[in-house]
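[SOLVED] Need 3D model of a three-part complex

Original post:
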Amino acid sequence: MGRRKLCGRIGIAAAVAGASMALAACGGSSSSSSGSASGGGGATGASSGKTVVVADTSSVQKLNPIVMTNFLDFQAIGMIYQQLVTLNQSLQVAPQLATSWHLGDGGKTVTFALRHGVTFDDGSPFTSADVKATMQYIVKPSTGAAAASYLASVKSVSTPSKYTAVFHLSHPDSSLLYGLTSQNMSILPAAAIKANTLATKPDGTGPYEYASYSPNNSFTVKRNPHYWGPAPKISGIEFKTIADEQSIASAMQAGTVQLGLLTQPQVAQQLSSPITVDKALNLNYRALMIQSKGPLANTDARLAIQCAIDRRAVLQAAVLGGGKVVGPVPQGPFATNPNAGTCATQNLAQAKSYLAKAGDPHGFSFTVLTSQELDGTSTAQATTIQNQLSKVGIKMSIDNVAGSQYIQQWLKGKFQAALAENGANPSPYIMYGRYFGAGASLAVPAGYASPTLKSLLARADQSNSQATQSTLYRQFTNYLVNNAVWVWLFNAYDYYATSSSLQGFAPLPSGQLTGLATATVS
Amino acid sequence: MSVSVGTPQPAFDPVASAQSSRRSIARRLWARGNGRAGLIIVVVMVLLGLVSLIGVQPHGPNDQDVYHALKGPSGTHLFGTDSYGRDVFSRVQHGIVLSLEISVIAVAICTVIGTLAGVAAGYLGGVVSAVLMGSADLLFAVPSILLALAIVTALGPGTLDSALAIGIGYAPIFARVVRGPVLSVREADYVKAGAVLGFSRRRVLFRHILPAVSGVLAVQITLALGWAILTEASLSFLGLGPPPPASSLGLMVSEGTNFARTAWWNLAFPAAAIVALIIGFNLLGDALRDVFDPTSGRD
Amino acid sequence: MSALESSLPQAPAPPPAQTRGARRRGRGLARWTTVTLLRGVGTLIGVAIVIFIVLRLLPGNQITASLGVSAGLLTPAQHRALNHFYGIGQPLPTQFWHWADGILHGNLGLSTQSGRTVTSLIGTALPVTLELAILSMIIGLILGIASGVAAAAAPGRFGDWSGQTFALFGLGIPNFVIGAALVAILSNVFHYFPSSKSYAGLFSDPWLNFQQLIFPALTLGIGVGAAVMRTTRGAMLDVSRLAFVRSARGKGLARRVVIGRHVLRNALIPITTMSGIQFGYLLGGTVIVEQIFVLPGLGRLLITSVQEHDYAVAQGATLVFAAGFVLVNILTDVIYMLIDPRVRT
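Solution:
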């Protein structure tokens, strides 16, 4: 997901850059179209409709939803595929291909009732066999899906009937449902898995079906005539790559693009009527990750950094203020209050007293790892923070490296501190289990281990009560902030510019574009 | 004079011609329109950049003032400010220094490698020549941008790495340009005579061959500087130059395209600096060629 | 990289002229053909080895290139399976042999990122780049020869002055600056951005195709034109000093006839050489221009595949570029022989 940000910022270099920085969890969400129980055959009476062009600086990279990582892939391929469950406007789990679910055996089984009358684009009916085949495909090592981590607690999937799928868990896992909302958990037809055609021919249950793909240029979907939900009014959508956001803005003014996906506030601001601009908070969060080693092993030293940073100024420098300062969990039912905790706003006096407590009254030195190639705002963040820290005597040097280099060092924990753009999720367990949980796969880059954190995460995840979860997650995030394990900075806005001919489109907090399925174009 | 064996002078003795004209090169350059224009442009641009090293610049190139971002040219900000509120004039100054630094190192690299290869190929001939010139062909056949891309990605972005990437791409041209004159000098009677008289290879090389190619080299170095500046700008435009916050001119153009509508100064001034540098060195190179090789005089 | 022109490498040596009878001539041509082909193949093999090694020097591997930091979420079993899939950890000679053996059987491999065959990816990208390069070349030749002839016809006059100025700026302005400026002006002033539509093939929608390619071609063509202009002007001035041109003029032939029939024709040799060299660099220049104008050509394919560590695609694309370069060099030699009767075998 870092990719799009970067595309925007540094134009060409962006389109060139390869690896995505943010974890796949960020795309973890899906279409909503209020997909409740009232399915019904929607194919009838669809007006012929027109097509819309969606422009982005990135291009679609992978057609297989299980392994895609690029944000535009989530948006474009997300028009074709659906998941068992999805996230609604308030980022809570809602039905999609499963109409309902219930927990059994003390939370150790999850039984999904599947929607009837759903077909894949190839015409085959959707049944529990597809669910089982999909889950098996995701955890198969040779698939190489990072999303397999969502299913870590799942021992097996059984299919007592054609429209019932049961997940058997090793322990109660409340985060599983959030994991299943990820686009990387899209339900695939068992036949396509067997035929190994996923990478070349998308085949899902969503409102649109695959039409054509020109790598590095455009990706097109057309209306799915057999869609189970309300028939989409727009007959086709083309996802078109345009090198820089300025050109997207121009193309919108020229009328060749109906929906422009922008990240740069200065470009979004200049668009005027009849083009309207909506903004929605991106699910990625920016943080200063810290390895608890050397001078930074000292909690007081880390707190001094936290107190010396003015997060609002960082936000201003990075994206001209287009975003929000956030705590560890930015959005959703368990969101953290960003104005609570130690030094929620800059406090230089307190920073100095922490320095004194740490035994370094005159400050210390450390190096921050950044990659402008991966996150086009990281230089602005780094130089602003550098400036702020210097006021209390902390010398931060900036080590800006190429994207691939950053990823290597990040994975091996070879940094003192790193500016990161990580994927957020409404479930704090999905966000942080991988960093601070028991057996966390990213414990090395996380750079901080604590039994307290492990236990809080495990207890919250295994609880069935939302109230208990809330309390435990609050304790968890308080611990993170009050010990300055990392320093959480901000979430940026994504901008959705729509031309006057496109009506009824609303962006979703997940960044999904499924709102297009219910929009019209004149 | 190096011709001490009493052999008849060749019709065009590059050695003699190079030496006799050395004193008046500057004057002859200045006498030519393109030479004068090139000198003036290069000197002005270089000075503009270098004075920033001794502190003659309106602002620090990386001083941010995010609340005064994207302001147009004014008294305090001659070239306006960029999206971080940094002074574009100071950044252009810094960009010129960076560009020159990388280009000079790059040209040094390709001059040394290319000249050695060219002299070796021309003087030794045979297998050495075949191998060296084959490698040159090979380097030509790989798109130079790809070569640079690979080198920069492998080594990580930085001044030296960019210079290396650029230098390697240009070395084959030096090899080819140098090889020609070396061949003709080798065949010249006075060099053959020297060999007969038992002069060491080194003596022949330093007394006869290197002076003979010095004129060609001077021309080539000047043109290579212009080319290196162009390549450096292209690389940093693609995001493969020195990483930010270094104000590489190509990167400034690339970022400037995002503000072309609202803040044209972010695009126009860095672009103008690149163009001025390249044109300056190209004019100078052309003029030098005219001076060194009167037979190519076309004006 | 049009400024390279100003220091162009020497033209490839023409085949030695044979004068003693047709059989000798035939043998000379055969020998020339063999040598040329061998050199071309040798260059391609060298390029293949170089690109193969260079790609594997890049930090990271296909897994981190594909997944980014999410690669850290993979279990050891997943890592093992992916290593096997990508062939990571196999000895380099084995990997190279696999690739080379595939090529010999007409199989350039599979894109590990998109799952498509390299042949099909190149098959869709190459026509875009070829069309762009040819269109640029046409623009460059028209601009260059016209302004060069105009300049040489009246040295020191206005035509000469404006031609020289054009050449100066054409060589001095990097193509990415021209491209970026063109995009900015077209889109901001004229609200015109044909590339916001999906790329149209030459045969599926010729008019849209032309609209999409004309500005990128202009961007590249200006540099080519500048180089060709200088060569044309220089060559024409050289030729017009020769005795036969003077005598033609002395015979009272019309200026236009002298320039057209005698001077230009003889100046064609250096112009051809220069055009060949320019076409080679043009292929490289397409890399940048395709980025700016978002054309789905070979250059863009190359850059993305290098970044994504999609080795087979990057190797294939490089080989095609190199083959284009070699081919153009050979063609230049052939045209050279056709034009110049003295080197005709």
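Edit: Confidence is low (pLDDT under 50) at residues 1-18 of chain B.
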